[in-house]
Amino acid sequence: MKLSLGPILYFWSKQKIYDFYESVADTRIDIIYLGETVCSKRRSLKTQDWISLANELAENGKQVVLSTLTLIEAESELNTLRQVCEQRDFLVEANDMAAVQLLSEKNRPFVSGPFINIYNAKTLEFFHRQKLKRWVMPVELSGETLSQILQQIKETKLAEGIETEVFSYGQLPLAFSARCFTARAHELPKDQCEFVCEEYPDGLPFTSQEGEEVFTINGIQTQSGLCYNLLKEIPDMQQMGVDILRLSPQYEGIEHVIQTFSNVILDKAGLELEEKPYCNGYWYRKPGKDEIGAVLP
After folding, report:
1. Where do the DSSP E strands lie in the chain?
2. CA atoms within 13 Å, Cβ hemisphere of 240
3. How far apart are CA 283 and CA 235, in angstroms?
4. Domain boundaries, the chain
5. Which residues pair with 207 in a beta bridge?
6. pLDDT tens across 110-165, in order?
């Protein structure tokens, strides 16, 4: 079982991004996803900068995947998408159907991101015919559903050779909107947002009147309020045949998370995650904000 590091979902400075990837270059991470997936106004790095960074990480032994924008609203965003899909050096994670179409037309293998609605084996078979190489399970699916899909694939051989990746740690990416909620929280229009989301390197917490952490606001993206954590579910995923566990970048402390997940995969002891509330409800077909059982091993 491999570990992947998903794309950075927040707006960080250029130097912070470079420092972050330098800090994970020698960790147990096998696969690194690079690129802006949330808001096209976040231009700390341009497309060529991401590709240059990808080359550096590849030279360090990492498999690099370039991730595409999830919500495309303008021709300029479509042009950036074409640039990413036309490069030939790195696999591409398609986060919307426009990317899937471009890559399929070019007969290019690709990864489907968690925002592509693959909910059953038949849909997986369809995307496999479009050159799908790896799929990231939509975060709202349960472990039971995943097990059924993987069993159907195994029995029917509909899509042999496809890798399965599961979002396993981080604020869950739940929804996207044409509106920027972070700007709205500061009473700013989206087109004049002043990049206030940079003030929240792990997103803006959104609590209920009762003080419950319901959501995290990240520009046009809505995330879970609590950190999703499938650490204790690793043995079950290994038995199912899950190939890759995805960890979502955090502003601080990701190295410890990587090492902890690595130790559990290798059946080693010695590290624990930070003691704080987590959620894992979706995995058990419960409300996503719930925590089922003790998450820490």
Report:
1. 2-5, 31-34, 63-67, 91-94, 110-112, 132-136, 163-176, 204-207, 213-218, 221-229, 244-247, 278-279
2. 24
3. 14
4. 2-172+226-284
5. 213
6. 999 999 999 999 999 999 999 999 999 999 999 999 999 999 988 887 767 899 99
User: Does the predicted TM-score (pTM) go above 0.90?
Assistant: yes
Q: Is the pLDDT of residue 297 over 50?
A: no
- What pLDDT sits at residue 165? 98
CATH 3.20.20.70 fits domain 2-172+226-284: yes
Indicate the SS3 state at residue 136.
Answer: strand
Facing residues of 110 across strands?
A: 92, 132
**Type of residue numbered 157:** K
Q: Which residue has the tokens 């550096």?
A: 56
Residue 45, C-beta contacts closer than 8 angstroms, at least 6 positions apart = 14, 17, 36, 53
Q: Which helix (H) or strand (E) holds 22?
A: helix 14-24
Q: Residue 41's closest CA among 249, 229, 219?
A: 219
